[in-house]
Amino acid sequence: MKMKIAPVIPSLLISMAFFAILSGCTAEVEEQEFRDPVVVEGVEAQISTRSLFVTYPGTLEPWKQVNVGSNAPGRIDRIYVQEGDRIQAGDPLVQMVDNQLRQARIAYQTTKREYERLLPLREEGAVTRQQIDMAQTEYENAQVNLGLLEENTILRSRMDGVVTEKWFEEGELYSASPTASGSPGIIQVMQLDTLKLMVRANESMLPYITEGQRVYLSADALPGREFESRVWRIFPTVNPDNRSFRVEILIDNREGLLKPGMFARAELETRSQEGLFIPREALMRGTSSNSRDVVFLVDESNRATRQVVTTGVFLDDVVAIEDGLEPGSFVVIKGRQRLESGMEVEKRKYEP
């Protein structure tokens, strides 16, 4: 019995013909896609001058801070202020119990009268010079003691400011021992119309930071606001451990929007640099030591060109190009991922 062989040749020919037609259609589609211009957005590279800025974070502090308290322990009689009160230099803040003060006033008046009584007697020769000197010494000592007790019984403000803390209440016994803030005190006064920010700058910034230099200050708690500030003081030494130096920045806070303890950033303009700058987004960075930084350009015939470039300094959202790019070149920013050299493109101005 003979086996029949299936007629596979006609079927094979049909399959090959169908594949050829399909391949032809695909090639035609690909060719059509290649012919359709790719829409890209970009900018012309231009030589410009850019400012170099450095930013330092820190915590805002009051310009001045004083803990008000007596030098000696005693009971608190009255407290004249509360947290948030604005005060002026010389205003009474706290009254301590004044038993010792009353005694000091009596002693002062007694010694004063005795000294004044002896002065005319000395001219008459009724008393000796030694008696006069002793009376004068007692009078002066009583005067000094009275002044000290007055200063430590009626506690007055030594500066204009705002009461920010009150650690004791009326009737409590004040021990003159250190508080949580460090130095002893009954209340705390701060100057808040002016604040300060202490930052540490790298020693390489020494030639570029000067006293009086303008500083652009912002706080995370107040987005969109910029506050007037300037370099107030540059400390004269460099820390050998981290090669940094301290910079004290003064901030105008007459509006009262900033508060001590807020996180803030100080931005300083260090120097200016002229160069050929392009947006960072246009740059395709090399991923290894063997690859190079690349940009895509669009030539006069609207064809894409892959161009190797040498980069310089990076500033915020731009980068300086030191080699590989001419001023006026159209640099692709949006759509560069789809490009290959030689592709026809339709270029448009980049709109961030």
Task: Give structural notes.
The protein is of the alpha+beta class. 22% of the residues lie in helices and 41% in strands. It has 3 helices and 18 strands. It has helices at residues 8-35, 99-124, 129-153, and strands at residues 38-44, 46-68, 74-79, 86-87, 92-96, 154-156, 161-166, 173-174, 187-202, 214-219, 227-234, 244-252, 263-279, 293-298, 304-315, 318-323, 330-334, 345-349. The strands form 2 sheets. The protein has a 6-stranded antiparallel barrel with strand order 2-9-12-11-10-13. The longest helix is centred in the N-terminal third of the chain and has 28 residues, at 8-35.
Summarize the structure.
It contains 3 helices and 18 strands. By secondary structure, the chain is of the alpha+beta class.
Strand order of the largest sheet: 2-9-12-11-10-13
| Oligomer designation | single chain
Helix content: 10-25%
Terminus-to-terminus distance: 82 Å
How many strands? 18
**Would you tell me the overall average pLDDT?**
85
**What proportion of the residues form beta strands (DSSP E)?**
35-45%
Name the structural class: alpha+beta
> Strand count, sense and closure of the main sheet?
6 strands, antiparallel, barrel
